[in-house]
Amino acid sequence: MKALIFTSPCFGFFSLTILFSTQVTITTLAQNPDSTLNDGINKTRFAVVVGTGSVAFAGGLLYLSEIWYSDKERVPFQFYNDNAGWLQMDKFAHSYIAYHQSYWGYEALRWTGVSEQKALLYGGSLGFVLQLPIEIFDGMYEGYGFSWGDVIANTAGSALFIAQQLVWKEQRILPKFSFYPSPYPELRPGTLGRNIGAQLVQDYNAQTYWFSFSPTSFFDWDRWPQWLCLSIGYSGEGMLGEFGNPEFIRGESLQHIDRYRQYLFSIDIDTRKINTRHRFLKGLLHAANLIKIPAPTIEFNRMEGIVFRPLDY
Hints:
This protein is of the alpha+beta class. The protein contains 9 helices and 8 strands. Strands 1-2-3-6-7-8 form a 6-stranded antiparallel beta sheet, with helices on one face. Helix 1 packs antiparallel against helix 9, helix 2 packs parallel to helix 5 and helix 3 packs across helix 5.
């Protein structure tokens, strides 16, 4: 089933690794005063951006068509309703990936000298554009299906970036990701991942999606450091299957494992606002905003009520 393969999130996290390294390079170069563009498009930079994006996207689609789906039969286009699956954690994954792809697309085009309006139109919609063909692929192969829920989540991620840029001319609310290994892959390694690399994508119990923001972006709090953020998170626990848990695995009862949602509140750092004169370090800090830093966290869930955790896991 599609839910056990995680096609779009898997491809999305792969593309984010490409975008992360490229973002470090672009942000680093952009710190050079001599390379600042006054007007017009820098053809060399434009070629770098378009070339990198095209190669990554074409390579990903080639991998999907020639390797990922190689053992699947082509079928008439079909749909798959997974909106109730994984406590919607996969939808947060789609939105998160699309947001950062759009963020990268916008900044990359601005770095080349493309106007604000065109960079927002073409770069800001990049997350949606990159993810849509993957959903179409899913609809064409046996065991998968085109998911309108995924498309809506992808759209929401790109829209979050575009809306903030239109209204505030900056990104005040930053989607972030954190990961802490869960014990559940031992029970269902084929579904949740046999190693850390696979669990990073497949085990939604181990993932948390956050929205970080600095109060100084909304209120006149002079004493609050601009880089210090508040962060609201969402995750799920006890998920051994997409829509429900099996009652037994290898003869062992699993009825004691409950599926439930987790709502979290923590602090975070906007690494873009850490001052440094080192260009490469500044680029690295800018790209590091993909990830939320570990910090003390207050969690609320229906099983335990309010729980304080020394770190957000």
